[in-house]
Write a structure and sequence with these properties.
Blueprint lengths: L1 H8 L8 H8 L3 H13 L3 E4 L3 E4 L1 H23 L5 H14 L2 H11 L24 E2 L8 E7 L3 H9 L7 E7 L3 E6 L2 E6 H4 L2 E6 L7
Helix pairs in contact: 1-2, 2-3, 4-5, 4-6
Length: about 210
């Protein structure tokens, strides 16, 4: 988790201050200092006192692998076992370390190769780097465009309605029509009307014609 949070908090390769890392992990600065020194001895991070900690290439590979395991398990637990995200997140923290890469590849195939977890966070590809999927509001999409559903910031009732129609994190959809009051989307061969007010709360990842996310 140290490596995952260092990767997540790092911006443009700049060192992550230990105080920021301690706050993210909810541990004491002394504990963070000791762990970062241990990780440096293992060649997973570079620690510079008073500046912060940076992840090394080998540390990044390990962090991305764990993050891939974690987020794929979140998708399975939420979409197929109907767990709440908070419960799924805690369970995934335990499963991520005990799952082999072979099992994860089978899980990825079973899930249909989702691009994001239930919170709309990108899922790393196998042996790949952490993708920086850029989201955009659903209301900015045009008729004929295809996208991946990332997240919805609306109330739980609205999210449940969308999920029951197949519009949940990771789902691929196509914009059929755009009107002044609503948008018509196609998901899994079914047309779903989404009101404009609800559409403003939705973030998506736009795909090009080759199916690649922007």
């Amino acid at each position: 988790m140290y490596l995952v949070d260092i990767l997540r908090l790092s911006k443009q390769g700049q060192p992550v201050p230990l105080s920021q890392l301690a706050a993210a992990l909810n541990v004491s600065p002394i504990s963070v200092n000791q762990m970062c020194r241990r990780l440096q001895d293992e060649g997973l991070v570079t620690y510079v006192p008073y500046k912060g900690v940076s992840i090394t290439p080998s540390g990044e590979r390990l962090a991305v692998r764990i993050l891939r395991h974690h987020r794929l398990w979140e998708v399975f637990l939420v979409d197929h076992l109907q767990m709440k995200w908070e419960e799924a997140h805690e369970t995934a923290c335990r499963l991520e370390h005990d799952t082999t890469d072979e099992v994860i590849e089978r899980l990825d195939l079973f899930l249909g190769h989702p691009r994001v977890n239930p919170r709309g966070e990108p899922i790393p590809a196998s042996a790949g780097a952490l993708p920086a999927a850029t989201t955009m509001p659903l209301t900015e999409m045009r008729a004929g465009q295809t996208g991946t559903w990332a997240q919805c910031a609306s109330d739980e009732t609205s999210r449940n309605f969308l999920a029951s129609a197949g519009l949940r994190a990771g789902a691929t959809f196509r914009v059929v029509a755009v009107g002044p009051e609503s948008m018509l989307l196609e998901v899994n061969g079914r047309n779903v009307a989404v009101s404009r007010p609800l559409a403003t709360a939705v973030q998506t990842v736009l795909e090009d014609r080759s199916g690649k996310a922007h």
